[in-house]
Amino acid sequence: MEKLQIIIEEAMENTRLDRIVSMHRADVSRTQLQQWIKEGHILVNERIVKPNYRVQSNDVIVIEEPEEASLITEDLGLDIVYEDEDVLLVNKRRGMVVHPAKAHASGTLVNGLMYHTPNLSTIGGALRPGIVHRTDKDTTGLLMVAKNDEAHASLVDQLVAKTVKRVYVALVHGHIPHNHGTIEAPIGRDEQNRQKMTVTDRGRDAVTHFKVIERFQDYTLVECELETGRTHQIRVHMEYIGHPLVGDPRYGRPHTIPFGGQVLHAKTLGFMHPRSNEYVEFTVDPPADFQKIVNKIRNDVDK
Questions:
Q1: Whether the Cβ atoms of residue 63 and residue 7 lie closer than 8 Å to each other
Q2: What is the CATH number of the domain that holds 149?
Q3: Model pLDDT, residue 122
Q4: Do 58 and 104 belong together in one domain?
Q5: Are 111 and 90 in contact (CB under 8 A)?
Q6: Would you say residue 294 lies in a domain?
Q7: Per residue in 215-235, pLDDT tens?
Q8: pTM
């Protein structure tokens, strides 16, 4: 599809960007357009802005619809922890991308989910059926999936209300002296490197609570509980306080333990079940490679 260009006239000043775009692309849902804005497919004066950006006179908006990757159904042997008629919890393995994109048309969690069951919510769009929240490719552990739109809406509302319990375990560089703490620092896109997030006054509020599980000579094993769910939140926050995750290719230290990604595992998920309205909680242990690297560090210290 060719690019669509919109030049803002004075009469449209101070209107939200997503509303302006929806006037010109009525065939696309507002939610999908907001996602395009976040992903950089809709630019204002050649810059990425937020969906709630208020347009100004003579702003130049360019819309370039992303190419849709075909959705391949694949038997990926997903580790399904729990499933009923409304929700499904999967223990995602390291190296698995959550949903398809041009660079990852196959092998994603969604490809495997579509093979496992055709009954998934549609709110996230054609390439994100059932996906309520995401984790990074090399982060392992629990993800909740919605099997219908009603369940999806309920789970999203709980995430927005910050009532979902999300606990991760991570191995970080350095010796954290405090037994527990809270990192409250806004996170936004790094203007010098659009592939990274960073702590910035222009970012969105972000809160991470942590407690020390075990200390080693040069490393600390920590448990992190998310109050908010910003992109790369734990990775950015731990780097911000001087304790980046071991193996993190984007925010970590140059000389680290080879691992093939950050040592980070989504351990616990707790939420109100969309149908019964009862609290449910699930926990899965870190994978063998995670435990192996921790045991190696522990044994090296004991020698």
A1: no
A2: 3.30.2350.10
A3: 86
A4: no
A5: no
A6: no
A7: 998 999 999 999 999 989 999
A8: 0.79
**Per-residue pLDDT band at 301 (split at 50, 70, 90):** low
Has residue 72 got a pLDDT over 90? no
- The H or E element containing residue 87 is strand 87-92
176 and 303 co-located in one domain: yes
Domain that holds residue 241: 162-286+299-303
Number of separate domains in the chain: 3
**End position of a domain, from candidates 161, 196, 212:** 161
DSSP 151-201: HHHHHHHHHHTT-SEEEEEEEEES---SSEEEEE--EEE-TT-TT-EEE-T
Q: What is the CA radius of gyration of the chain?
A: 21
First to last CA, the chain: 63
Catalytic member of 136, 157, 201, 205: 136
Q: Which of 58, 65, 52, 137 is nearest to 99 (CA)?
A: 137
Question: Are 278 and 167 part of one and the same domain?
Answer: yes
Q: How confident is the model at residue 70 (pLDDT cuts 50, 70, 90)?
A: low
Q: Is 136 a catalytic residue?
A: yes
**Quick check: is 292 in a domain?**
no
